[in-house]
């Protein structure tokens, strides 16, 4: 608010260009070099400091702000440089400076529809020639990249419309002018490629050079493997249809698939606080969602022969050999700036870890994220849908600790939940909620749930991750964050409750020994607390060790078992988490 008022006062003498922006009118981004000196002159006027101190005190009067003048000093010290950055950055797409500053969280976002994307239902010719208000369906950008995906259908008033491409429209006195439907425009190279690592699951945006769109083997800056898929992902403005309206015959609305929101690798996680054994980093982040047409790298867009900025998408599964040299394959991207909290254990108990390159490790992070989301929602008395959750993989120089769980606000620019949870008190209360309320219930439903279900961790928001979620692992991860120094295992009771893994692995009738017997394994009895099995394969003898999903290979129990196995045996270590989901991993 303060930034907005400073800019309004500084620029109040300037003539307006008449366009009304919902965020207040501070001119076009490209005019910033001309408006900057005006703002600078205002800030250096002799009476400005007193005026702004009074303003700050007035704005802070009914807030819990501890030291409003320090906030003012911070703003004044960095304001011009921060606006420079936003005005010149290729990351922001809005023509108006005020909208850019709102996207960058420098100005308040009032929930005005800057992220609303239209699907124009009228034929193209009618759109450009007619001055009347066009017929549209609208969606938030996050949803638009899937429900308005080219080739998809949208139903309005019992008529079915098929999405054909992207454009932007600006009203003029005689109809509408067309502008580029993608940012950056199709004719330009995309300076911010999106890289998705298939090994460590880091997301890179921008993906550093050298990398080219469509490449599948770019080197990952986080893990060093040549496993990064590179996408040319661009933000769409609005969408148009093929102009036909078909009768609705009962088909449901087509939804192209888009990714869950992710966080790109960014600088050092600079921890902001510590709660028990949890290192917390609260910061403002850009959440990325993309639609790459089901792994095909995006949609092939071709510029319209006469209408500037109108890009038609080839929706055939295998597009004819590049129809035009000006065509490009582009994934649809949505970016949303919001408050985010990164969470990881400060220290791991001996011989435990959760590398993001393994199924067990990713299961630990997603499980932790959705457990904290459920507990935080209960603690804050809000709907779980107010929070998003997921896995963040950090930069390489954080050593082995690249994995984090994250929570973030669903609303753009945040409702403040993630920031609040990043303080020691609220975070400890969230962990306490898991122990006091979720854990007893989960223990009770153990006979009915060997991994996760709708009664513990599964809901609509985390459908993509249902196979990875596990309430047993949730208990181990939250006990580690709470400061329990003991290495989690498969047999030690959890206080008054039995060890949750024991029922899966102990006794001949437990699910894991039962399925291993069916696969031809016999118990080997090499360790009192770690189940071991042997089988004879066509190539020789094999010993299978059932491990805890968080154990590292140097765990003493595993070392002790290895010492007893003859050299001629093939040894396989598979976690209880993987065996219960995919017994064939034992083969
Ligand atoms: Zn990687
Ligand atoms: Zn369950």
Structure description:
- The protein is α+β, with helices and mostly antiparallel strands.
- It folds into 4 domains: 2-103, no CATH class; 116-258 and 291-334, no CATH class; 337-502, no CATH class; 504-586.
- Helix content is 28%, strand content 23%.
- The chain has a 17-stranded mixed β-sheet that branches. Strands 21-22-23-24 form a 4-stranded mixed β-sheet, sandwiched between helices.
- Helix 8 (359-380) crosses helix 11.
- The longest helix is centred in the middle third of the chain and has 22 residues, at 359-380.
- It is globular, with a radius of gyration of 28 Å.
- The protein starts with a helix and ends in a 6-residue tail after the last helix.
- Bound molecules: zinc ion (ZN) (2 copies).
């Amino acid at each position: 608010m303060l930034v907005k008022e400073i800019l309004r006062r500084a620029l109040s003498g300037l003539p307006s260009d008449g366009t009304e922006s919902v965020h207040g009118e501070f001119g076009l981004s490209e005019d910033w070099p001309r408006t900057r000196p005006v703002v600078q002159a205002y800030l250096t006027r002799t009476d400005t400091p007193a005026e702004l101190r009074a303003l700050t005190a007035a704005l802070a009067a009914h807030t819990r702000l501890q030291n409003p003048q320090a906030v003012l000093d911070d703003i004044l010290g960095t304001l011009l440089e921060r606006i420079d950055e936003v005005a010149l950055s290729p990351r922001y797409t809005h023509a108006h400076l005020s909208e850019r500053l709102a996207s960058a969280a420098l100005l308040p976002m009032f929930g005005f529809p800057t992220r609303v994307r239209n699907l124009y239902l009228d034929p193209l010719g009618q759109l450009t020639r007619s001055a009347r208000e066009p017929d549209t369906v609208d969606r938030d950008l996050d949803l638009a990249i899937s429900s308005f995906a080219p080739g998809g259908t949208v139903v309005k008033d019992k008529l079915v419309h098929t999405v054909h491409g992207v454009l932007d429209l600006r009203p003029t006195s005689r109809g509408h002018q067309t502008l580029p439907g993608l940012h950056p425009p199709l004719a330009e190279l995309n300076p911010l490629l999106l890289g998705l690592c298939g090994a460590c699951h880091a997301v890179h945006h921008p993906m550093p050079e050298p990398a080219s769109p469509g490449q599948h083997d770019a080197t990952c800056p986080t893990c060093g493997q040549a496993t990064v898929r590179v996408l040319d992902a661009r933000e769409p403005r609005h969408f148009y249809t093929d102009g036909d309206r078909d009768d609705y015959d009962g088909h449901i609305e087509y939804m192209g698939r888009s990714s869950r929101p992710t966080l790109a690798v960014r600088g050092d996680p600079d921890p902001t606080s510590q709660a028990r054994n949890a290192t917390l980093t609260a910061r403002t982040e850009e959440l990325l969602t993309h639609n790459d047409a089901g792994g095909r790298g995006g949609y092939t867009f071709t510029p319209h022969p006469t209408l500037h900025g109108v890009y038609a998408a080839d929706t055939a599964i295998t597009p004819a050999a590049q129809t035009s040299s000006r065509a490009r394959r582009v994934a649809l991207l949505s970016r949303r700036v919001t408050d985010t909290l990164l969470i990881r254990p400060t220290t791991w108990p001996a011989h435990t870890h959760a590398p993001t390159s393994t199924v067990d490790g990713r299961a630990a992070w997603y499980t932790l994220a959705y457990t904290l989301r459920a507990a935080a929602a209960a603690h804050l008395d809000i709907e779980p849908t107010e929070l998003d959750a997921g896995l963040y993989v950090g930069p390489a120089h954080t050593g082995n600790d690249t994995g984090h769980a994250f929570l973030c606000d669903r609303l753009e620019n945040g409702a403040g939940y993630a920031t609040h949870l990043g303080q020691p008190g609220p975070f400890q209360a969230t962990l306490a909620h898991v122990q006091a309320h979720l854990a007893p219930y989960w223990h009770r439903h153990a006979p009915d749930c060997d991994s996760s279900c709708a009664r513990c961790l599964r809901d609509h928001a985390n459908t993509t991750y249902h196979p990875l979620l596990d309430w047993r692992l949730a208990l181990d991860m939250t006990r580690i964050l709470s400061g329990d120094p003991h290495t989690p295992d498969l047999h030690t009771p959890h206080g008054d409750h039995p060890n949750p893994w024991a029922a899966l692995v102990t006794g001949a009738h437990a699910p894991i020994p039962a399925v291993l017997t069916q696969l031809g394994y016999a118990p080997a009895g090499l360790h009192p607390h770690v189940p071991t099995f042997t089988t004879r394969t066509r190539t020789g003898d094999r010993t299978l060790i059932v491990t805890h999903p968080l154990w590292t290979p140097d765990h003493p129990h595993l070392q002790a078992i290895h010492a007893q196995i003859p050299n001629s045996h093939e040894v396989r270590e598979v976690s209880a988490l993987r065996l219960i989901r995919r017994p064939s991993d034992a083969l």
